[in-house]
Amino acid sequence: MLNDFKIFLQRGNVVELAVAVVIGGAFGKIVTSLVDDMVLPIVGVILGGVNFKDLAVKIGQSTIKYGNFIQSAFDFFVIALVVFILVRAYENLLGKPIKKN
Questions:
Q1: Residue 98 in 3-state DSSP?
Q2: What does the pLDDT look like over 27-84, one tens digit per residue?
Q3: 8 Å CB contact between 55 and 65
Q4: Residue 13 pLDDT
Q5: How many H-runs (helices) and E-runs (strands) does the chain carry?
Q6: pLDDT of residue 63
Q7: At 59, is the secondary structure helix, strand, or coil?
């Protein structure tokens, strides 16, 4: 079993996946900073000084921080867009046709 595990770890896909996870985590932090520190403050100014982190509604003793959700959704959108652009560029570089339904 230990030998099988060693062979599994030595496969290229496992190493590539590990590298992708580490780079993805770092990329996520960069995008979060971009959104939190640059994009959303500008959007907040355009919307009349809204600070998205402060957007919340209190129901009883619970606080629903929907501003954080807006920021997370925007983070996801930016990450998905950048990944899409990178995959498109990679496919164009390799000359692979892009599948269309």
A1: coil
A2: 888 888 888 888 878 888 888 877 777 889 999 999 999 988 888 888 888 878 888 8
A3: yes
A4: 75
A5: 4, 2
A6: 92
A7: strand
Q: What architecture (CATH level 2) is domain 2-94?
A: Orthogonal Bundle (1.10)
- What's the one-letter identity of residue 92? N
Rounded Cα–Cα distance for residues 36 and 27 (Å): 14
Alpha-carbon separation of residue 48 from 10, 20, 67, 98 (angstroms): 55, 39, 15, 42
Largest CA distance in the chain: 62
| DSSP reduced 3-state for 62 | strand
Indicate the domain borders of the chain: 2-94
Residues 69 and 38 sit within 8 Å (Cβ to Cβ): no
Contact assessment for residue 56 and residue 67, using Cβ atoms and an 8 Å cutoff = yes
The type of residue at 9 is L
